[in-house]
Design a protein that fits this description.
The protein is an alpha/beta fold. 42% of the residues lie in helices and 10% in strands. It binds thiamine diphosphate.
């Protein structure tokens, strides 16, 4: 897929995230918008996973540790054909299995997540299993910077380097905000790169909205043979909708009718501007 088509997908995904959150009157808006470029690149330019090979033991795995941002995952899985996009009209409705956190009842979801701090451990186990079975699949996991204080992450980080899991890539959606304040105010985990390096990881900093830079980073996996890889993806919470950007209110804020209209027009203009470029 060309860079322009990939960029247009990001705009369309942002529109769909807002559409379904607006319809459900619930969802995690800011963190879905900050992470969608990462999911776009992984699913459309990096990972070997599709509805056709989802039961194959050789598929690449994606585990979304910051499960609250499930809307980003749902719109990508729908686009990949795991389920009809119209299913998302039932998001967060009574009896729908499209609930507000990833569940394996939804085709394409690898692991139930949403209680923060579990995705990295699950990913370490999956990567270790791949090594023991002599498989060449890779495991990608998306973490929030605000979930890193959970102690289980650091046990998992230690275990990943102990077993030399260079088939594992963790990505931190480094938007510097969490639910009730900045990540630094709530529980400071800086310096992230030095901490992970001291745990035996190979670390890269990337602009988390630069699709080309994200792909180039993932294509270099393993960054160092025998070491798990970490991408610190510098992102903006609420990215793509100016009044939501870097604004804590939109962690799980739902736009009203006027705000929804403004956001959709802004994204439409962004898509139009992109389609006019070469
Ligand atoms: C174990 C656990 N504790 C608390 C929460 C409530 N919670 C939901 S989102 C969130 C903040 C997460 O921040 P971050 O990981 O930075 O996500 P982002 O800002 O990217 O949305 C918290 C504390 C939870 N889901 N799980």
């Amino acid at each position: 897929m060309t860079g322009k088509n990939l960029a247009l997908k990001s705009v369309a995904y942002r529109q769909r995230i807002l559409k379904y959150i607006y319809g459900a009157k619930a969802g995690h808006t800011g963190g879905s918008l900050s992470s969608i470029d990462i999911l776009n690149v992984l699913y459309n330019a990096v990972m070997n996973v599709s509805p056709e090979n989802f039961t194959s033991p050789d598929r690449d795995r994606y585990i979304q540790s910051k499960g609250h941002c499930v809307e980003a995952l749902y719109v990508v899985l729908a686009d990949k054909g795991f389920f009809p996009e119209t299913d998302l009209e039932t998001l967060c409705r009574f009896r729908s299995h499209y609930i507000g956190h990833p569940t394996r009842k939804v085709h394409g979801v690898e692991q139930n997540t949403g209680a923060l701090g579990h995705g990295l451990s699950l990913s370490v186990g999956t990567a270790l299993a791949g090594k023991l079975d002599g498989k060449s699949y890779r495991v990608f996991t998306l973490l929030g910077d605000g979930e890193l204080p959970e102690g289980s992450n650091w046990e998992a980080a230690l275990t990943a380097s102990h077993y030399g899991l260079d088939n594992l890539c963790a990505i931190i959606d480094y938007n510097k905000l969490q639910i009730s304040g900045t990540t630094a105010e709530v529980c400071n985990t800086e310096p992230l790169d030095a901490k992970f390096e001291s745990f035996g990881w190979a670390v890269k900093h990337v602009d988390g909205h630069d699709l080309g830079a994200l792909k180039a980073a993932f294509d270099k996996m393993p960054f160092v043979a025998g070491k798990p890889g970490l991408v610190i993806a510098h992102t903006v919470k609420g990215k793509g909708v100016s009044y939501m950007e870097n604004n804590l209110k939109w962690h799980h804020g739902v736009p009203n009718e006027k705000q929804y209209g403004e956001a959709m027009s802004e994204l439409e203009m962004a898509g139009y501007a992109l389609s006019e470029t070469n």
